[in-house]
Amino acid sequence: MSKQEVSIFWFRRDLRLEDNVGLYQALQSKFPVIPLFIFDDAILDSLPKNDARVGFIHVSLSKINTQLQEIASSLLVKKGKTIDVWKALIEEFEVKEVFFNKDYEPYALQRDTVICELLETNKTMAYSFKDQVIFEEKEITKADGLPYTVYTPFKNKWLEKYKSMAPVQEYDTAAHFSNFHKNRFAFPTLKQIGFEESNIKVKPHNLKFIANYQDIRDFPALDKTSYLSPHLRFGTVSVRKLVNWAFHKNDVFLSELIWREFFMQILFSFPKVVTQNFKAAYDGIQWRNNEEDFKRWCSGTTGYPMVDAGMRQLNETGYMHNRVRMVVASFLIKHLMIQWQWGEAYFAEKLLDYDMSANVGNWQWAAGTGCDAAPYFRVFNPEIQQKKFDEKGIYIRKWIKEFDLGYGKPMVEHAMARDRAIATYKAGILK
């Protein structure tokens, strides 16, 4: 019996049907399109069984599947080693074409190379597309073709290029939904994938505060952030729609989206930054790396209310306000002299919006070891940060229930820690 000829669209960091470049292109195929998602064992095996991000992916896929069922189609969800899943699909179907959107992280690039080699061996055409960014890889470079390593000129070039084409094209995938493969694949439960519900949930995104974003973004007690970051990370929103909208709404908010692409370009061009300092001159710094100090930082028991509130918010919700992220990162690195990789790994475990390029980029920014980073002698004073951005202690009291009952003493004195950090950096920076 001959196998059915099909095309496959492979969902990854683009969990939506609307304005999805790779999906739009797939639906132009002359073969019916099977929409596919793979729960990759190489990623899942290192996660706790109640990982909230897996739950969010599952919920997002369920929404896609419901939409597809309305047009007599459905989502094919598989779990296993990616290469094994693709081998099985090739056995089951006559896979003529595969479409997917690019992912720029080191593991994803390696995975995609292996899968494309398999597809080529099978004489299956593979097509990849830019979807999660406005500009990718080498689209924003200096005059000599080298990548920017300083944000402001990158931003200026980015804006110049965007303005020349604004608005960026959005893709009407719904106009071609008739080309989805007509089938009812069984949609697995979270338990069948080997996971369970988490008490931590991804919040809906909210753009109603963006008009005066620059005036409110640094005050965590206001709770007037967009909550967009997990949705951008997993692609439940279109970056094209968002940027086309933000361009006319708020320059500061748009700049945050450009920072996201800057860090993605840095990761793509300099993959060593995942584990190593961008500035090799900082490799000689002698870190304390005290495990007990690290545990106190993780648990939010340092005695510095702004730091502790931030860490408790992270541990309880998977979120942390951006201003507070800078404070807690600076504290770990500069006050406790614990290298940034420890903090980066903890954030990677806990953050709902964990995105490798941004996480690594921001931690190296705080450490002074990254591109266009804060200078090493900039040491945030957590008490001053608290007075500036949470003067009435509203944010702190929300997360530190015992705050008014006599809060603990700081584990390290600020002035001493600052002097120690600056001296250690000076001694360790290679000439």
From TrEMBL:
It comes from the Bacteria. The record marks W287, W340, W363 as: Electron transfer via tryptophanyl radical. Coiled coil: none annotated. Residues 5-134 form the Photolyase/cryptochrome alpha/beta domain. Binds 1 FAD per subunit. Gene3D superfamilies: 1.25.40.80, DNA Cyclobutane Dipyrimidine Photolyase, subunit A, domain 3, HUPs. Pfam families: DNA_photolyase (PF00875), FAD_binding_7 (PF03441). GO terms for molecular function: deoxyribodipyrimidine photo-lyase activity; DNA binding; FAD binding. SUPFAM superfamilies: Cryptochrome/photolyase FAD-binding domain, Cryptochrome/photolyase, N-terminal domain. Keywords: Chromophore, FAD, Flavoprotein, Lyase. InterPro entries: Crypto/Photolyase_FAD-like_sf (IPR036134), Crypto/Photolyase_N_sf (IPR036155), Cryptochr/Photolyase_FAD-bd (IPR005101), Cryptochrome/DNA_photolyase_1 (IPR002081), DNA_photolyase_1_CS_C (IPR018394), DNA_photolyase_N (IPR006050), Rossmann-like_a/b/a_fold (IPR014729). Its cofactor is FAD; (6R)-5,10-methylene-5,6,7,8-tetrahydrofolate. This is Deoxyribodipyrimidine photo-lyase.
